[in-house]
Amino acid sequence: MKQRSFAIALVSQKAQRQIEQGHPWVYDTEIRSIEGAYKNGDLVDIAGEKGTYLGTGFVSERSKIRIRMVSRNANDRFDEAFWARRLRYAWEYRKTVLDEADLSCCRVIFGEADQLPGLTVDRFGDVLVAQTLSLGMERIKLLLFPLLRGLLEQDGQRIRGVYERNDVPIRELEGLTQGRGWFGSDSGGTKTQIVENGITYEVDFENGQKTGFFLDQKYNRRAVARLAKGRRVLDCFTHTGSFALNAAHGGAAYVRAVDVSETAVTLARDNAVRNGLDGVIECQAANVFDLLPELEAAGERFDFIILDPPAFTKSRRTVGGAQRGYKEINLRAMKLLPRGGYLATCSCSHFMTDDLFQRMLRAAAHDACVSLRQIEARQQSPDHPILWNVPETDYLKFYLFQVV
């Protein structure tokens, strides 16, 4: 193994196999020893049991994910030029895979998928909103954020500031504190407007969920709009009303947008007014699990139902309960739809695999006594890239069906 100035973590055969298969994490139980001096959050080299160099990554003594790899090249120098190159690769990728209009609201950095583990950066117009979920990224953010802002500004993009949304409990697993606020000096208000698929939204990046707005369904919302013309649409778990707005923008005759949160319903209603679609969209605060059987009992019918629930499971232990929840809402939706009606249904949980999701849909269709004709199977938008050797980056399942 080539001599490095870093400490060397010796890992098990199991960890070596996983690294050689492309996975970038080393768990605490797979580390045999760490030779040499280092500080928590430093870069360390990783070696197999025979001393073979496997890669370099950030060590985190508090986390079960003990090392997050950033490179497999023993010759890399982790200087400013290295990190600037990583950021440039990420931005150039977005410029390639997204429509130009969508670059003003997109995910610029997607953690491990961009070889920047634990870092998420979303762009909302002239603001970058960052979540730093690993100690290693926290240690170098003073370098990364100015580099990223400078990269976009050199490319003609106007950026007024970077806002940190680090108010998430997962940071505590890395020994980090929670908080939110502007990185560096205050850069003004914490609301901004974006345009996605021709629809204008106000984004509250200080108080909204996660970084303020869910960008991963961008092109799935567009697919819904294509099917909505002239139809009566029910949008369940509407949140800010994004699917409802796309359906109305696509020419739906009527859209009912439902969410259990009064705050979400108010946001959806405001967005409908903002886009001149309040004459088409009716917003309702209700529990979808209660509402769907009530609508069925009342004999109400819709031509198109959209199910975009929050993640029902965030661990393998609760997948069984999640499956039952997904089946319940999909079964009820299928019963509400007439023959020839349309269903958009999805799961944003990595642990609810595509195989499990498909099995659930087949069981729901069987119990509802309907057949499903698949129109499209979709995933997250390409600014949330999927690495095939990192299953954790593959999380969104989205299906469009016709009931036949």
From TrEMBL:
Against InterPro entries, the record matches this protein to:
PUA, PUA-like_sf, PUA_sf, RlmI-like_PUA, SAM-dep_methyl-trfase, SAM-dependent_MTases_sf
Domain PUA, chain residue ranges per copy: 7-92
What are the transmembrane regions?
none
Name the protein family.
Answer: Belongs to the methyltransferase superfamily. RlmI family.
Organism from which the protein derives:
Anaerotruncus colihominis DSM 17241
Mind listing the UniProt keywords for this protein, alphabetically? Cytoplasm, Methyltransferase, RNA-binding, rRNA processing, S-adenosyl-L-methionine, Transferase
A biological process term (GO) from this entry: rRNA processing
Please state what the protein is called.
PUA domain-containing protein
The Gene Ontology CC terms held by the record are:
cytoplasm
